[in-house]
Design brief:
The structure is a homodimer.
Chain A: H1 7-29, H2 34-45, H3 51-57, H4 62-74, E1 78-82, E2 90-94, H5 96-106, H6 111-120, H7 124-142
Antiparallel strand pairs in A: 1-2
Helix pairs in contact in A: 2-5, 3-4
Chain A binds a DNA duplex through residues 33-36, 50-52, 60-68, 70-71, 83, 86-90.
DNA sequence: CATAAATAGTTGGTATGCGAACTATTAACA
DNA sequence: TGTTAATAGTTCGCATACCAACTATTTATG
């Protein structure tokens, strides 16, 4: 049996890739990477956030986040300042350019936004069923195994 | 509305991460990376395969695959030879060490294998329903949008 | 208060992962 | 047959992405 060639697995991978492709379409339009777009989006919604908070919300490590932020600052899309309250911390907010890029990516032409809206309109019963089965799968995937010894 | 904080989206991301964690557990046990483990697994099942074929089956570009293979050859887990039939092509097969590492990762202790087996035993009706809804979502995600102009 | 411990970010090293440009070989065709 | 196409891999530059080690600052504790 080919473990890596499983109908269910493939289904999850396909959707994962499709979602990423849509985000990439938006990001490309604005000359951004997907993770850069996500970062701008998050900071736009929570200005003056710190690095750790941002990293946590995007499920990245601080070191990865630090690099992403650094490149966004270099490109002039992000403003990074030392927090006055805690001189170890930084505060992040978009520059004018950053706001504009974000708008380019997430505006009316956004493929991702449109499709997510479509999916939101899905039959609630189907959605509940889906989430329920996903939960079953998550339980199987994350349950600590018993010892057969 | 926070597009990146969607119940369904999060559900997919969670499962994706859980699957990856399980594979990583197996890979770590053998001192491999996840993609290295996948590569060894595929080559074990289809010895003497070429680079392009391997890249396609793992949904990676040739350039990425080339690097992964190169590091596996350097670690002595993979044998790379020039094909006698086509001198442009290479043939790949596991070394003794490679076979052993693969066994370490996918043997009886494999978390991934166990869980996939568990999932396979899922209620067929639930599984069908899941695949059907996934298909609906895929259709939404990949359908070319109509012009409202 | 002074030192230890915790916290916020950064940096260095390695491994994906991609696209583009490249080499070498084989196939196609004028 | 000889030039052009296509094909198989590799290499380069860049951006994630992780961990471990580091600096700087703040908090906790003797």
């Amino acid at each position: 049996m080919n473990l890596l060639n499983n109908e269910l697995l493939d289904s999850f991978i396909r959707i994962q890739k499709a979602l990423y492709s849509l985000m990439k379409e938006d990001a490309d339009r604005a000359g951004l990477t997907v993770v850069q777009l996500k970062a701008l989006y998050k900071i736009h919604r929570s200005p003056n956030t710190g690095l750790r908070e941002l990293a946590a919300s995007l499920k990245l490590t601080n070191s990865t986040m630090s690099g992403v932020v650094d490149r966004l600052v270099s490109s002039g899309l992000l403003e990074r300042e030392i927090s006055t309250a805690d001189r170890r911390a930084i505060t992040l907010k978009l520059t004018e350019d950053g706001e504009q890029k974000l708008q380019e990516a997430t505006g009316d032409d956004s493929s991702f936004t449109k499709r997510i809206m479509e999916i939101t309109k899905m039959d609630p019963e189907d959605k509940d069923h889906l989430l329920r089965i996903h939960q079953q799968i998550m339980t199987i995937l994350t349950t600590k195994e018993e010892n057969h010894s």
